[in-house]
Amino acid sequence: MLKQVEGSAAVAEAVALCRPEVICAYPISPQTHIVEGLGKLVSAGRLAPCEFINVESEFAAMSVAIGASAAGARAYTATASQGLLFMAEAVFNAAGLGLPIVMTVANRALGAPINIWNDHTDALSQRDCGWIQLFAEDNQEALDLHIQAFRLAEELSLPVMVCMDGFILTHAYERVDLPTQEQVDAYLPPYEPRQVLDPADPVSIGAMVGPEAFMEVRYLAHAKQRQALELIPAWADEFKRVFGRESGGLAHTYRLEDAETVVVALGSVLGTIKDTVDELRDQGVRIGVLGITCFRPWPTAAVRAALANAKRVVVLEKSLAVGLGGIVSNNVSASYPGSPDDVHTVVAGLGGRAITRASLRRVFTEAIEGRLEHVTFLDLDHKLVERVLAREREQRRSGPIAEGILKDLGVVAAKIG
Amino acid sequence: MTHQPIRFYQTGTFTVGNRLLAQEQRSVQAQAGRTNSLNSGHRACQGCGEALGARYAIDAAMDATNRQLVAANATGCLEVFSTPYPETSWQIPWIHSLFGNAAAVATGIAAAMRVKGRENVRVVAQGGDGGTTDIGFGCLSGMFERNDDVLYICYDNEAYMNTGVQRSSATPPAARTNTTMPVGSSTGARFGQGKNLPRIAMAHEIPYVATATVAELRDLEAKVRRAMEFRGARYIHILVPCPLGWGHGSAETIRMARLAKETGIFPVFEAEHGEVTNVSKIRRPLPVEEYLRPQTRFAHLFKPPGHPEIIARLQQLADRNIRRYGLLDTEAAS
Amino acid sequence: MKPKPFAITLDPGSSLANHTGSWRTVRPEYVDRLPPCNHACPAGENVQGWLFHAEAGDYEQAWRVLTRDNPLPAVMGRVCYHPCESSCNRGQLDQSVGINAIERYLGDEALRRGWKFQPPERQSGKRVLVIGAGPSGLSAAYHLAMRGHAVTIREAGPVAGGMMRFGIPKYRLPREVLDAEVQRIVDLGVTLELNSKVDDVLAARREGGFDAVFLAVGAHIAKRAYIPAGSAAKMLDAVSVLRGMETGEQPLLGRRVVVYGGGNTALDVARTAKRLGAEESIIVYRRTREKMPAHESELEEALQEGVLVKWLSTIKQAGESSITVEKMALDAKGNPQPTGQFETLEADSVVLALGQDVDLSLLDGVPGLEVADGVVKVDDSMMTGHPGIFAGGDMVKGERTVTVGIGHGKLAARNVDAWLRGEQWVHPPQHELATFDKLNTWYYTDAPKSKQPILDTIRRQSTFDEVVGGYDETTAQFEARRCLSCGNCFECDNCYGVCPDNAVIKLGPGKRYEFNLDYCKGCGICVSECPCGAIRTVAEEI
Question: What number is the ipTM of this complex?
Answer without folding.
Answer: 0.95
